[in-house]
């Protein structure tokens, strides 16, 4: 999925202001160079004037910040390196950690979006890429997961 779409979906799901997106992103690295105007440019549609592509670096900082926002930061642990490449699988993993989702919660989110997946399919999405049963998370799967998670977080109303 396009990074801008992921950012847009999560921002809508959590009803975050542009400033809150900046604050969450800076939780991963206080010195990370991002401003409200950057967020506004990321949120524009790709055919709008002023649109800027959201880089893997920005999205990785935002997702890590989201984990810290919801789970807190363990200062006794060394800072994990920021992902160089943010795949759909990484987005899924970060959201799972941030919202402390169990397998049953993940299945429910997919189910709520009308996109049920089996236990082996879900497990395959969280395996290491070198594992023989690893499966790439497709755009449709991530889009439906975000939709199901949005229904869960925002309610059906």
UniProtKB/TrEMBL annotation:
Pfam families: DUF1456. It comes from the Bacteria. InterPro entries: YehS-like. This is DUF1456 family protein. It comes from Dyella halodurans.
